Structure formats: C-alpha cells, structure tokens
Amino acid sequence: MSEQRLTHVDEAGTARMVDVSDKAATVRQATAEGFVRVAPETFRLIVSGQAKKGDVLGVARLAGIMGAKRTHELIPLCHPLMLTKIDVDLEPVESENAIRVTATCKLTGKTGVEMEALTAVGVACLTVYDMVKAVDRGVTITDIRLIEKEGGRSGHWKAAE
C-alpha cells in the first residue's frame, strides 16, 4: 500500500470535511451487506410474518432507506447527498437462521456513497433487532461491510468473496 493520509484529517491532525469542490461529478454506486442472526423460532416468526410488531422485513427495508437518506446527520463529516437510488433487500438465509441485508446506493455526484450503503445496512439490521428483541435477547448483528463500489477517482472495487 502506498503512503496515504486519512482524507478527513488535515495537516495539523484536525478532523475536517473533505473539500470536493474541484472534483468532477460522476456516477457512483456502492453496495454493502450485513447479517442479523436469530434463534430458529425467531427466524420462523420473521419469515412467516407472525412477529408481534408486524412485518419485520418490510419495516426494516423502509428504515434502511430512511437511514441512507440521513447519513450526513448520523456520521460526522459526511456530505449531504442527493441519492438517486436506494435499494435495501432482506434475504432470509434458513441454513444460518439469519437475515442477509444488502443495500445499494447510487448518485451522480462529487463524492462516493459507501457510507450511505453501510448506514442503510446498519439501520435495517438494528430495526430487525428492535422488532424481535422481546422474544430473542440473543440476536447478533455481524459482518457489516462494503462489498462493492464503482465510480469516482478510485474506479471499481469489489471485496474478495
């Protein structure tokens, strides 16, 4: 890895918002994922739509979308972005008693959307937790990570499988 410095820290070591004024607007997209692991009984409640609080997957999908749109309010130094696409998917993984959450965010702009995709996943995972915690205190949220990004100066990047 070449010697690089953190982009949100200036020469004096002070945190700052990155100036993107001179960057070209390009199409940028990022996809992130995470997992919510639950007890087998809880998994059945979620998938069957029988959770007391209602449609866990539908509510979590909406929460993830809302979280992506508010990333700049939650994460210090993030730019407010005009996202043009937010997809949040919640896929039951029966063999693991888990819900795989993926989020893809897209825009044409001067800065990337990785934080928005990661925030969408985190908020959706936390929403699943919130909706089932009364019946399952052992819920875990794991492996939230960026899995792919496209656009900008650094081009295309994809996580190893």
Automatic annotation (TrEMBL):
It comes from Lutibaculum baratangense AMV1. The keyword Lyase applies. Catalyzes the conversion of (8S)-3',8-cyclo-7,8-dihydroguanosine 5'-triphosphate to cyclic pyranopterin monophosphate (cPMP). Keywords: Lyase, Molybdenum cofactor biosynthesis. Pathway: Cofactor biosynthesis; molybdopterin biosynthesis. One of its GO terms (molecular function) is cyclic pyranopterin monophosphate synthase activity. It comes from the Bacteria. Substrate binds at residues 77-79, 115-116. One of its GO terms (biological process) is Mo-molybdopterin cofactor biosynthetic process. Gene3D superfamilies: Molybdopterin cofactor biosynthesis C (MoaC) domain. It holds the Pfam family MoaC. Residues 17-152 form the Molybdopterin cofactor biosynthesis C (MoaC) domain. HAMAP family: MoaC_B. Its EC number is 4.6.1.17. This is Cyclic pyranopterin monophosphate synthase. SUPFAM superfamilies: Molybdenum cofactor biosynthesis protein C, MoaC. The active site is at 130. Homohexamer; trimer of dimers. Belongs to the MoaC family. It catalyses: (8S)-3',8-cyclo-7,8-dihydroguanosine 5'-triphosphate = cyclic pyranopterin phosphate + diphosphate.
